[in-house]
Amino acid sequence: MTTILALGALVPVADAAGVKSASKSYQTGKQKKAYTYAKKMLKQNKDGLTTKGKMFSTAYPTTGAASGYSDFLLGLKKQGYKFTKSQKKLVKKNLVVSTKSDPATLATAIIGLQAIGVNPTKYKPAGAKKSLNLVNTLYKKSMTKQTVNVQSQTLIAVSSNKTFKKPSKAAFSKTSLSKRIAKNQQSNHGWAYNNTVASVDSDTTAMAVTALGMGKSHNGVVTKAAKQGRNYLKKNIYKSGAFGYTYNGKENPNANSTAEAIIALSTNKATAKLINQKAIKSAQKATPLRNMLGYVQHAGTIKGAYSMTLAYGQVSVAMAAYHNGKYTNKFVYQFK
Fold it and tell me: What percentage of the chain has pLDDT greater than the value 70?
């Protein structure tokens, strides 16, 4: 990627392979728009400024928050946002977590709470008399019958902080869970929510790849599965540079799927270069980063998103995972 100075601004131009990448000025401009909109969302506690839906509310009986809230909070943190006492109180007041919570709810809360600076191992839920160690609670949940999406969420959560310790009566370890996820890989090297090759998609595959990277297992089966998963993503990028899903033979590219893929690609030094530095396929029009940021509209909203909480969260976390083009083995969901 090269840039030229035109009218006092840096503009993106195609590299030698003809793929359009995102210049630093393009990244900064899009990120600023989305960040400004997201700050207003949190201030108003809304899932998008034009909707009536709340971001944190008892209207969500099992979680207390809109889908994607943990990525939303993490995205703000990665952009340098400082959460106020009242905002932290808003989150803690509404989150629904207990020993009876399902693994996905616990995993999401572990990431979300860390994002606002709250220790999930010493968390006192609203109305509770005693604090609860969410990490220990999650470790004691069986992963046997969980979907690969939940297994991946769980592995990411328990691997997000090196101070987290596996309790003595844990139902799994990071290694055993990594092996379980690897075992669920399909014959085409992707993953599916229902463990069938016909349902394999980029989103589930990307999450599995990210989780295996977070688990940092050196087991041969696990590392092979992660590599094959990255290769699946490379094979299934659209010519536009986006990722998405195919239904009835029609491609459905979107910002969320592209963001998930970027996060997964960032977990490996070689594939991290494919985010914005070089083409993955011949005839590819834009890099994944350039394509994803193209969904950020002038107002800061994400085009085509059904939930702005989820959309901003994934896009902003993907931007942070890109790490300005510099690979790091401290992945985006790692706090310590």
Answer: 95
pTM greater than the 0.90 cutoff: yes
Distance of CA 90 to the CA centre of its chain: 23
Query: CA dist 268 to 152, 183, 241, 274, 276, Å?
Result: 17, 20, 19, 10, 14
What is the spatial distance between Cα 211 and Cα 152, in angstroms, rounded to a whole number? Answer: 5
Q: Which single residue is written with the structure tokens 């270069």? A: 273
Q: Which residues of 255-283 are buried (b: 16+ CB within 10 A; e: fewer)?
A: bbbbbbbbbbbbbbeebbebbbeebbbee
User: Closest Cα partner for 240 from 220, 229, 255?
Assistant: 255
- Give the integer Cα–Cα distance in Å for 318 and 109: 19
Task: Note the pLDDT tens digit of each residue in 145-181.
Answer: 999 999 999 999 999 999 999 999 999 999 999 999 9
3-state helix/strand/coil string of the chain: CCEEEECCEEEECECCCCCECCCHHHHHHHHHHHHHHHHHHHHHCECCCCCCCECECCCCCCCCECCCHHHHHHHHHHCCCCCCHHHHHHHHHHCCCCCCCCHHHHHHHHHHHHHCCCCHHHECCCCCCCCECHHHHHHCCCCCCCCHHHHHHHHHHHCCCCCCCCCCCCCCCHHHHHHHHHHCCCCCCCECCCCCHHHCEHHHHHHHHHHHHHHCCCCHHHHHHHHHHHHHHHHCCCCCCCEEEEECCEEEEEHHHHHHHHHHHCCCHHHHCCCCCCCCCCCCCECHHHHHHCCECCCCCECCCCCHHHHHHHHHHHHHHHHHHCCCCCCCCCCC
Q: What distance in Å separates the CA atoms of residue 186 and residue 194, rounded to the nearest whole number?
A: 11
d(C-alpha 273, C-alpha 323), whole Å: 11
Q: How many CB atoms lie within 10 A of CB 140?
A: 16
Residue 11: pLDDT band (50, 70, 90) is: very low
